[in-house]
């Protein structure tokens, strides 16, 4: 008796793959744009302009679709929105900071530890059970970090520390988003993300009394960062709606070879085997945990 392929499942996987292709492209564009902007703007200024573009896009979409009123959240959820955005704002700033200091592939490899930090912190924050699979995933993830960073073999600098800290910030954002998604729509979460992070960017960028304006040849990079963040979020959400997380999550890891090639072509960054080996350990831990969670 031969196994029969479910056409609906095949179409769902193809749809998810197309959405994830968009997400991978958006993340890659953001990385290149962030590095180009770091020449003249600090990370707070990058986040400020990114968020301003995001507010305009989300509010404009809400107005055109007649859904602007639906973007308003319940008052008692604003505190959790703020917590989510402080974590995300911190993580995103550290991510942009790391992009200017270390190879793009190394930033992405360390960013892949985000799901592992989520698995470790979820029992503390959401009261979820700390399973054996999560512990094994954490061990593999930390082994991957050591392979990527190679302490003692190469100098571990601010870039590696920032990329790893960014992953922890993103993990905090994921946990808060998981709690918010029980009552809030994706567009409501994105709306408050852009609004709150605009305020945070304005305060942090203006703390020294000097907010640098982008030069004429940098506006396209700012638009790329602003659009890239929203497009990536929407593509991943759409992919998860089309297919299970067990199918979608492994697709995200194709970001690493793509950004490694981009770094090599644009900036002459070497293709380091250690980064790929470390990333495989991190990815393996993530997939092991995802498989266990799917079965459970």
Helix content: over 70%
The low-confidence parts are none
- DSSP helical segment count: 12
Number of domains: 1
Q: Can you walk me through this structure?
A:
With 296 residues, this protein is mainly alpha-helical. It has one domain (15-295). It has 12 helices and no strands. α4 (104-111) packs parallel to α12 and α5 crosses α7 (158-180). The mean pLDDT is 84.
Which descriptors would you attach to this protein?
globular, 296 residues, mainly alpha, 76% helix
List the helices and strands and how they pair.
Layout lengths: L6 H31 L5 H22 L13 H22 L4 H8 L2 H12 L6 H18 L8 H23 L5 H20 L13 H24 L2 H8 L2 H13 L5 H23 L1
Helix pairs in contact: 1-9, 1-10, 1-11, 2-3, 2-8, 2-9, 3-7, 3-8, 4-7, 4-11, 4-12, 5-6, 5-7, 6-12, 10-12
Short overview:
This protein has helices at about 5-35, 45-65, 80-100, 105-110, 115-125, 130-150, 160-180, 185-205, 220-240, 245-250, 255-265, 275-295.
